[in-house]
From TrEMBL:
<dbReference type="GO" id="GO:0008422">
    <property type="term" value="F:beta-glucosidase activity"/>
</dbReference>
<comment type="similarity">
    <text>Belongs to the glycosyl hydrolase 1 family.</text>
</comment>
<protein>
    <submittedName>
        <fullName>Beta-glucosidase</fullName>
    </submittedName>
</protein>
<dbReference type="InterPro" id="IPR017853">
    <property type="entry name" value="GH"/>
</dbReference>
<dbReference type="GO" id="GO:0005829">
    <property type="term" value="C:cytosol"/>
</dbReference>
<dbReference type="Pfam" id="PF00232">
    <property type="entry name" value="Glyco_hydro_1"/>
</dbReference>
<dbReference type="GO" id="GO:0016052">
    <property type="term" value="P:carbohydrate catabolic process"/>
</dbReference>
<dbReference type="InterPro" id="IPR001360">
    <property type="entry name" value="Glyco_hydro_1"/>
</dbReference>
<keyword id="KW-0326">Glycosidase</keyword>
<keyword id="KW-0378">Hydrolase</keyword>
Length: 429
């Protein structure tokens, strides 16, 4: 495999790095008392205005691809009304990548949605299928002739499903502890949630017109999962028709699901909920984006915490870069299209551990390639330290840091390391 067919780069999401995504649902929730966001994104990393600086740093390090998202809430701020200036902004980003020999890998939706969409039922309403089709057609019209190789329709289409699982597990944990305070790794606290439920529903009505706004990362019902899959399939059809030379897929958040004796059944159920439930909707796609950060080990009583003494990241995940090749192999057993690693990374202030994480993860990718698995890209998450949703700015995933007051960039050694991987390893793949 030559260098031109394998991409090593980094990824971002618009809302997390651009700032001031004021027409989005997440921006609205950031302003709410009970929106679940203890910190506001504000200017974020100001990537909206500084993308040339950031992409230049990426190129200077030796990387050859950049995955970023178009923000639906910017492009269609009001239902059916498209903002040509905002569309041109993202086209300018595409052009700047191309001018610098950086392959743009585009994501159409990365968690943030237009606020008006949520007011119309959001991701639990079949209305979203037609709305996303309209948005996708507009994007495809504007990308005609741009030579885009890869488009991801939806980022982590399984996230709502995973959150439903986490909430169920939290409730089970709470019941087992017979009323003691119970929390999960993602920070859910059932006791506090119950106290705030009534006030939260009232505020949701004031902001979204409904007590239960179905944002993309809300707990998802079986109906919602079907809507997600139909939305994706409709977008794939449009993109294949309008951009026949572009490969289309979606991305999934996938842990390396393992079992100890007695945990096989629970592990199998978890893998079904994370991956297999979505397989029928993606089986004929050109590629699937794999996003892995850690592993999950199951015993007979459910998911086990990391072992005592295990190294943990800022997110509370077990440091386990070997999870990536394990997931790639498991996905490939069922999905025969191309595989792109669209996210893989670590939140830490110790950049030497980031370097080690990348080293071991990419060694696993190389082993997969040597075995003939069609992996086409490795995108580290994230190019920049960013607004990590409900964790705010406390989680530092970036290859590049920044000062929130001055926006001055600090290039970390891990960026150079990843660029060196690109210069050396892709010539031998």
């Amino acid at each position: 495999m030559d260098r031109e067919t394998f991409y090593i780069g980094a990824a971002t999401a618009g809302h997390q790095v651009e700032g001031n995504n004021t027409n989005s649902d997440i921006w609205a929730m950031e302003q709410m008392k009970y929106g679940g966001y203890p910190e506001k994104s504000l200017d974020a990393a100001d990537h909206y205005n500084r993308y040339k600086e950031d992409i230049t740093l990426l190129k200077s390090a030796g990387l050859n691809a950049y995955r970023f998202s178009f923000e639906w809430a910017r492009i269609e701020p009001k239902e059916g009304e498209f903002d040509e200036k905002e569309m041109q902004h993202y086209l300018d980003m595409v052009h700047f990548c191309k001018e610098n020999d950086i392959e743009p890998i585009i994501t159409l939706h990365h968690f943030a949605s237009p606020k008006w969409l949520i007011e119309k039922g959001g991701w639990e309403s079949e209305y979203v299928i037609e709305a996303f089709k309209r948005y996708t057609k507009y994007i495809a019209q504007n990308l005609s002739g741009e030579g885009i190789k890869y488009i991801c329709t939806l980022n982590e289409a399984n996230m709502g499903n995973l959150i439903s699982i986490y909430i169920r597990q939290a409730k089970e944990q709470y019941e087992k502890q017979e009323g003691e305070k119970a929390t999960l790794q993602i920070g859910l606290n059932l006791e506090e949630m119950k106290k705030e439920e009534e006030a939260k529903e009232k505020e949701n009505i004031e902001v979204f017109g409904t007590p239960f706004p179905a944002v993309f990362v809300s707990p998802r019902s079986p109906k919602g999962n079907k809507i997600i899959m139909e939305t994706h399939k409709a977008a794939v059809e449009i993109l294949h028709e309008m951009l026949p030379d572009t490969k289309v897929g979606l991305t999934l958040s996938l842990r390396d699901v393992q079992a100890i004796p007695g945990g096989e059944e629970k592990a199998a159920l978890d893998w079904h909920d994370e991956f297999e439930e979505f397989l029928p909707a993606i089986i004929d796609d050109d590629f699937v984006g794999v996003q892995n950060y850690t592993r999950a080990v199951f015993g007979e009583n459910g998911e086990l915490p990391p072992e005592d003494g295990a190294e943990l990241t800022q997110m509370g995940y077990e440091f386990y870069p070997e999870g990536l090749p394990n997931v790639i192999r498991r996905v490939h057993a069922s999905f025969k299209g191309e595989i792109l690693v669209t996210e893989n990374g670590i939140a830490t202030d110790d950049d030497t551990r980031r370097v080690e994480f990348i080293r071991r993860a990419f060694d696993g990718v190389k082993a997969c390639l040597e075995d003939g698995i069609p992996v086409k890209a490795y995108m580290y998450w994230s190019l920049l330290d960013n607004f990590e949703w409900q964790s705010g700015y406390t989680m530092r995933f970036g290859l590049i840091g920044f000062d929130r007051k001055t926006q001055e960039r600090t290039v970390k050694e891990s960026l150079a390391f990843l660029g060196n991987v690109n210069r050396i390893e892709t010539n031998t793949l």
